[in-house]
Structures are given as structure tokens and as C-alpha cells.
Amino acid sequence: MKFFMKFIFPAIYGLTVYLTIRLLNDSVAQIKFWERPWTLNALEIAISIFIGYVEIFLFTRLLRYFDRQQQVLNIYYGRIVKELGWLILINLALQNLVFTPMAALTDDGLSWGDLADINVIPMLYAVIYYGIARSSQFLNAYVDNRIQLERVTNEQLETELKFLKAQYHPHFLFNAINTVYFQMDEDVDGAKKTLEKFSELLRYQLYDQQQQVPVIQEIDYLNNYVDIQKIRSSTQLALAVEIDDRLQQQRVYPLLFLPLIENAFKYVGGDYQLHIKLALQGNDIILAVSNSLHAMIPVKENGAGIGLENLQRRLQLLYPGKHRFTASRQDHLFIAALQLEITNDAS
């Protein structure tokens, strides 16, 4: 392809321009091409082919010059107009320098029609050449721009997700260490078991949150978390946990269920009722969490602190248009529900 564009195409370009001018001129002037001296025809054809090589060479150098001045990725109308303007000027200069004297010295001399043909036809071919030469570059530049934009966007989202993940750790670490601290005085074996569960929780939290995991792993994590929270909670706590046995290998992004359960343990009060239900409904996984509240303690609806605010942002990033999250207070109950659309269930 490079050989064709460099050595053959310029000759075809120059010959096409010449034959088009010749055809129009001969049709108007009623001249028969084959009745002209063949030496004159051969000379004009040879000069036209030579001009084709010169024009394509200059056009190529011109476009490379603009590419060096400004990357082709940066496309705007002003640049296109500037490139086209210079290309047309070069074209007009060469055509008038060569073909205008040629027309004046052959046949019936130079006429206004000859002058129009010499200027307009090569200019149209030059514009067509520019469109063909630049179209592939501009298309590639557009695709590269889109890829670059998506890469930057993904990097920003990944950074934000890592930041949101990091915000879970301080509060969780404080509560877990505090639990072990008080256990050490009364139940060393219990403290060791708590530390074991605590280490399993930390190991799970180190997973990349942009990678999905089987929901059964998330359930194991939540069970360990609930076990630690039960140690810390009041003996008055009435805890009910319901988990659908069908939830096994369906894949979800990790640590999306934790904020609702963490929030419930944090605000449970009153008659200390806490209910957790995780179920499969069609292609959706639904987590419903409700906890009783102290009558005098206000709880924000649709977000009780940084945990639920982070959750809503992560849902927007990981499940855009494929989730439903609600949180509200009803009398002395705080009820939160999260529904995730799962489209890649494992068989």
C-alpha cells in the first residue's frame, strides 16, 4: 500500500486531473483529442504526471508539517480550514505556473473557459485528496480520543472507589480492636476466636472491589461480621438473620451489603430488634435490613452518615441503572433495602 501511494498514485492523480481538463475543454471547443499531434499529447501527459508527483509530495509534506505543529488528536475546524487553505494555494500556484502557459501556447490559445478549468478542476481534486488522506487519520484520532477519555474516566472512577473503600477501614478497625480489648479480661479463648474472625474480615477487605466475587463469599464475610457484632452487642439484642440457600455462585461486587448491616448495629436501640434478610428474587439479589431505634435519637433518611453515602456513590459507579436503594424511618424502625440486578448468574 505504501509503495502504491508513493510511486503509483501520484501518476494516476496527475493523469486524472489532466484527462478531466482535457475532456471538458475538448467537449466545449469541439476538439478531437486524437487529431492533435501525439508529441504534444505525450508532452502534456508527461508534464501532468510530473506535476502529480510534485503536488502529492508537497501535500504530504504540508500535512506532516501540521502534524508536527499540533498532534492529529487535536482536531478542530480552524485547523481543517487552515490545512485546506494552504493545500488549495499550493495547487493553484502549480496549476497556473504550468498549465496556464501550456494552454496559451497550444490549440486556440487561452480562453476564460480554459482558465476556469485549469483552476477549478485541480482544486476539486485537491479537496477530494485531502478528504481521503485525512479521513482515516481523523477517524483514528477520534477513536483514540474516545479511548483516552474512557481511560481517564476509568482511572478517576477506580481512584474514587479505592478512596471509598479506604473510608470503611478506620471505623471497622476501631470497633473490632475495642471488642477484643474488652474480651481479653474475661474470655481469652473468645478473644482469640474473635481475632481469627477479625483477620478473615481484613483479608476479605483487601480484595479488589472492582472485581466481582461469588455471593457466597460475601455471605461468609457478613456472617463473620455479625458474629463479632453479637459479641459487642447488648444481651437484649433480638437478632434474626435469614439467608436464601439459593445464593451461591451469583457474582457481585464485594462490601456493598456491609454498610446497611453496619448501620443497623450502630443505631439499634429501643426494644433492640434487628432483622437481616438476604434473598434471591428472579435475577435480583435483595438485602433488607431493619432495626428498632431509640425514640429520641434522630436518624437521617436515605443516608445515616458516611457509610450509606459512600454506598450510594459506589452503587452509582458499579451498578449504574441496575440497582435500587431505599432507606427510611417508620415509627421506631429504620428500614433499608438494597436490590441488585444480577445478569451473570453462575449455573
TrEMBL record:
Gene3D superfamilies (alphabetical): Histidine kinase-like ATPase, C-terminal domain
Keyword list, A-Z: Kinase, Membrane, Transferase, Transmembrane, Transmembrane helix
Listed transmembrane segments: 7-25, 45-63, 84-104, 110-132
Domain Signal transduction histidine kinase internal region: 159-236
Alphabetical list of InterPro entries matching this protein: Bact_2-comp_sensor_kinase (IPR050640), HATPase_C_sf (IPR036890), Sig_transdc_His_kin_internal (IPR010559)
Domain of life of the source: Bacteria
Gene Ontology, cellular component aspect: membrane
Pfam families with a match to the protein in the record: His_kinase
GO molecular function: phosphorelay sensor kinase activity
Stated name of the protein: Histidine kinase
Species of provenance: Chitinophaga niastensis
